[in-house]
Write a structure and sequence with these properties.
This protein has 373 residues and is α/β, with parallel strands linked by helices. It has 14 helices and 5 strands. The protein has a 5-stranded mixed sheet with strand order 2-1-3-4-5, with helices on both faces. Helix 9 crosses helix 10.
């Protein structure tokens, strides 16, 4: 027989416990609202304003008119003009643009003679969804422009005055696994490292052994290095396993340098370890550490571009995503694994990642020293 009074007594005791643990209460109340607003704005499969690089070999009224048609759509925006067709591909290698258009020098000559001509689009296929959308948008715009020109020029072929040719780079078969596996590698390295590091120091606080460590001659830096060293080896083991399984099971080859990938992966791990230490310094219990870890990890999954394209996010959400190290590590992973590019093409994400790491490490060490004091 259930006794209501005993249940109420236990519930009253639990309410008192919740009131005492104000940090967990605040996190539990605010986190759902924060995640709802963040995901509501950030989660979108719409792809607008894709950056476009342009090579105009014709340089005529008609070619400029076509470029304006592409630029005036809500889907594509001209980011840069280049001097050679090779520079269009370079722009995609560097990640500056997602799509490039090459207008040949014979474009207007053939158009004015009423002959069929062509326009080539180079599309970054590393993200299959963006690639499919970009190919569809570009074909629609070209076909619409072609129909408009039929009224001005007499053509033997009334349906194909201008033919769009799409060339998919890096992932020509648009396999989703080749897009997802590099992102999953970054996600695993980040999540496991942050949570294990955060819990390791908070556990010492809960057991009361952190005071015993402080009383020893060990310095704060030695304490931090000693605490995170085992997790560095665990993270490297995870990196090796995910790369091997990605190759064996999903057929994802590393087109670029494995040494460069491991080196930059080490840098990224440093940021994850520093974030874990920071969380541990502001948490008093493992429950608080878990809540704070989730408050960081869940948004980072969405905002880093792992699932949804950052190009589709509102500007304020896009701006916030620039302060998440995983955002840049995803660019690095996909650049090395799918594109096979080197350090020169990855300078921008590397510089951004290094800047964030320095800030995070400085803040974490200062907070950790203050906690020990």
């Amino acid at each position: 027989m259930i006794n209501i009074n005993r249940i109420l007594t236990i519930a009253k005791k639990e309410i008192i416990h919740i009131k005492r643990d104000r940090a967990s209460l605040v996190i539990a109340l605010i986190l759902p609202i924060f995640l709802l607003l963040l995901f509501g704005f950030a989660v979108s499969s719409d792809v607008d304003n894709l950056k476009l690089s342009v090579y105009d070999g014709s340089k005529t009224i008609e070619s400029r008119e076509l470029i304006n048609k592409l630029n005036n759509s809500t889907y594509l925006k001209v980011y840069e003009y280049v001097d050679t067709p090779d520079a269009v591909e370079k722009s995609l290698d560097y990640g500056r643009t997602k799509i490039g258009v090459i207008i040949p020098d014979y474009f207007t000559k053939k158009l004015r003679r009423g002959e069929s001509t062509d326009v080539q689009f180079l599309i970054d296929g590393s993200d299959p969804y963006i690639a499919k959308t970009a190919a569809s948008y570009s074909s629609q715009i070209i076909n619409h422009y072609s129909q408009l020109k039929l009224a001005n020029y007499s053509s033997k072929n009334k349906e194909t005055l201008i033919k769009p040719y799409n060339l998919l780079l890096y992932n020509p078969t648009l396999e989703s696994s080749k897009f997802n596996i590099p992102g999953i590698i970054g996600l695993i390295l980040q999540n496991i490292t942050i949570m294990l590091t955060a819990f390791s120091i908070v556990r010492e606080k809960e057991k009361g052994t952190i005071e015993q460590l402080i009383m020893t001659p060990i310095s704060p830096l030695e304490l931090v290095i000693g605490k995170i060293a085992p997790y560095v080896f665990i993270a490297f083991f995870e990196l090796d396993v995910t790369l091997i399984l990605g190759k064996i099971i999903f057929g994802v080859d590393i087109k670029g340098s494995l040494i460069l990938l491991i080196f930059l992966g080490t840098i990224f791990l440093t940021s994850s370890l520093a974030i874990g230490i920071f969380i541990s310094t502001i948490s008093n219990t493992q429950l608080e550490a878990m809540h704070l870890s989730l408050a960081y990890l869940l948004p980072s999954v969405i905002l880093s571009g792992f699932v949804f394209p950052r190009e589709a996010m509102p500007k304020i959400i896009y701006f916030i995503s620039c302060f998440i190290p995983l955002t840049y590590f995803n660019e690095i992973l996909r650049g090395i694994i799918l594109k096979g590019v080197g350090i020169r093409e990855l300078l921008h994400p590397i510089a951004a990642l290094m800047t964030l790491i320095i800030i995070i490490i400085v803040v974490s060490i200062k907070k950790f020293k203050k906690t020990l004091d």
